[in-house]
Write a structure and sequence with these properties.
Blueprint: H1 3-7, E1 13-17, H2 22-33, E2 37-42, H3 45-54, E3 61-66, H4 72-85, E4 91-94, H5 109-137, E5 140-145, H6 158-177, E6 183-190, H7 211-223, E7 228-231, H8 233-244, H9 247-261
Parallel strand pairs: 1-2, 1-4, 2-3, 4-5, 5-6, 6-7
Helix pairs in contact: 2-7, 5-6
Length: 262
């Protein structure tokens, strides 16, 4: 790929949540290397500043945006900033999320609430104003980060799977409602990607991908007309097949697989 091809991208201005590390940081690199302006938001300003430094010589521009997506007032302030600058992102990737693996013995409402406030409600807090702005303009592109973990329940991931399943259903419903509005909505369902979140897993993760490879898969998916961006292909095939199994068979298989991997 030559430099000219590498810099081509249909989006000039992009907002990525959860941009400080993992897939979000890899996406920021990819878009900046292709000449885009990227507003990268996260709670950790140090991580954002480090990312900005690493992209100082990129053709595009990375702009750190310290932001807690659990706080709608902070999101509103960001929108006011864009209005003052007369620049609003053409593509929004709602990638921010967290993971807190826990067995049934460690299950608690407080623990679940903390995860759901980020993965689900935090995403909705961002989606609300973006969606209405795009609907008013009759254009815009939104991508929501879910996971293949939203297909079925997985051991030690009750709250995480629930949050991702909710996001998948949310996007499916909105996708149908948005038909003919000029607003594009896609859901991203990765398999296992090596990030600080998956580093928390204590089991062997099949088809584990690097964050840079995941970012490229997402980029290609964003350029496509597909509603769902899911990868890696073979792993996704097996995960979707598992959705078709009767509960008795699925639960038995997962119990055996978990016992072997722990």
């Amino acid at each position: 790929m030559n430099v000219k091809q590498k810099m081509q991208t249909p989006w000039h201005c992009i907002w990525i949540t959860g941009a400080g590390r993992g897939i979000g940081a890899a996406l920021a690199h990819l878009f900046c290397e292709r000449g885009a302006t990227v507003y990268g938001s996260a709670r950790n300003l140090d991580e954002l500043n480090q990312l900005q430094s690493s992209l100082a010589s990129a053709p595009g521009k990375f702009i750190p945006v310290p932001l807690d997506i659990r706080r709608p007032a902070e999101i509103a302030a960001l929108f006011e900033r864009w209005d003052r600058e007369q620049r609003f992102p053409e593509l929004v990737v709602l990638n921010a999320g967290t993971h807190d693996p826990a067995s049934a013995e460690a299950f608690s409402a407080q623990r679940c609430r903390r995860l759901l406030d980020i993965n689900l409600q935090g995403t909705i807090n961002c989606l609300d104003p973006v969606l209405h702005r795009y609907l008013a303009d009759r254009r815009g592109h939104i991508a929501v980060m879910a996971s293949v973990a939203g297909y079925r329940g997985l051991p030690t991931a009750a709250a995480y799977c629930a949050s991702k399943a909710a996001l998948i259903s949310l996007c499916e419903s909105l996708y149908m409602d948005l038909h003919g509005t000029g607003v594009r909505l896609q859901v991203i369902n990765p398999g296992f990607v090596r990030t600080p979140l998956t580093d928390k897993n204590t089991f062997q993760m099949p088809a584990l991908m690097e964050a840079d490879d995941a970012a490229m898969a997402i980029y290609r998916g964003l350029l496509s007309s597909r509603f769902e961006i899911a990868f890696p292909r073979r792993f996704v095939f097996w995960m979707k097949l598992l959705r078709l199994l009767p509960n008795r068979l699925y639960l038995s298989l997962m119990r055996r697989a978990t016992q072997k991997s722990l």
